[in-house]
Write a structure and sequence with these properties.
H-NOX domain; about 190 residues; alpha+beta; 2 domains; four-stranded antiparallel sheet
Length: about 190
């Protein structure tokens, strides 16, 4: 579950790529200010961490503005209920199909890497103090998405790890507060 891949051992691979795709990769790498090798590593990492688990699932990708229009049509109670049910069921499946232990670190990794970085649900800042873990999730949708996320993660942590959290929900963000004394560490 390495965050940036910097401490992982690497191997050299040689492969052929369509010339037109190579030109696109070079342009994109130049635009990002990175090497083509680093760009390809990012693409492969996205596949390994997220996309390979979505291949045979009915995962839908849509423009955030279209999704926002759908959210606006759902009543507040329904969005909260869907968050509670989804949070109880979906994250556990994500952890199990990756062969990860059902512990706090795995669920935080899932939030940061899968839901945050690769699925684009939010941008996340994670802070740890001596007393608590604070996860601040920022998004560009509305209060209904905040309500969904709040219930999703409250349900995820309670049903999978028996962790009670406190939250602060805002129009375009939610903050989760998890007391460290509730986190069971594996020894």
């Amino acid at each position: 579950m390495s965050g940036d891949g910097s401490t992982e051992e690497t191997v050299t691979r040689t492969f052929r790529v369509n010339k037109e795709w190579d030109e696109i990769l070079h342009k994109q790498a130049d635009w990002q200010g990175i090497s083509v090798s680093a760009l390809i590593d990012q693409i492969i990492r996205r596949y390994v961490v997220s996309e390979r688990y979505q291949t045979n699932l009915s995962v839908i990708s849509m423009d955030s503005q279209a999704f926002l229009r759908l959210l606006q049509k759902i009543n507040d109670n329904d969005i909260k209920d869907v968050g509670l049910v989804s949070g109880r069921l979906l994250p556990e499946e994500e952890i199990l199909k990756r062969g990860l232990p059902k512990d706090f670190q795995s669920f935080v990794w899932l939030m940061e890497e899968v839901y945050g970085r690769y699925r684009g649900w939010f941008n996340i800042d994670h802070y740890t103090t001596k007393d608590q873990n604070i996860l601040h999730l920022r998004h560009c949708l509305n209060y209904k998405w905040s309500a969904y996320l709040r219930n999703f993660f409250v349900s995820m942590l309670k049903s999978n790890l028996d962790i009670e959290i406190t939250t602060e929900a805002r129009e375009e963000s939610i903050t989760l507060y998890i007391q460290n004394k509730q986190i069971k560490t594996v020894t």
